[in-house]
Design a protein that fits this description.
This protein is mainly β. It contains one helix and five strands, in the order E-E-H-E-E-E. It is globular. The N terminus is likely disordered.
Length: 113
């Protein structure tokens, strides 16, 4: 669910979204999530769904690319800090599919199924 509210016009909350991004291989052959690719994806989805373009999406490094894994990224929304909650659904070679939900950081975390 992506729910950004602009000060002048509320935007619809949207259902959780799926995506694919490129993974990087780390030493030892273990795939890790590409934080730059994931940040770009979040930027695109937020912009496409709300018209607001976050410019400071930050995602952690070293996240193992394994189904069921969860991690959070952060960015500044129109009213302040937001959190992007991601759950890894599938990994196909160097591609990963997510469930994504963004909310103001002060809101409770969502349940990503």
């Amino acid at each position: 669910m992506i729910g950004l509210t602009l000060p002048t016009a509320p935007l619809k909350c949207l259902a959780a979204v799926g995506c694919s991004v490129t993974l990087l291989s780390a030493c030892g052959g273990h795939n890790r999530i590409d934080p730059t690719g994931t940040a770009s994806y979040i930027d695109r989805v937020v912009f496409q769904q709300t018209g607001f373009r976050p410019t400071d999406v930050r995602c952690p490094t070293g996240i193992p690319a394994s189904p069921g894994g969860r991690f959070n990224c952060h960015f500044t929304g129109p009213e302040g800090p937001y959190t992007a909650y991601l759950r890894i659904v599938q990994v196909h070679g160097r591609r990963v599919s997510y469930r994504l939900d963004t909310r103001p950081s002060s809101w409770p975390a969502p349940t990503l199924r």
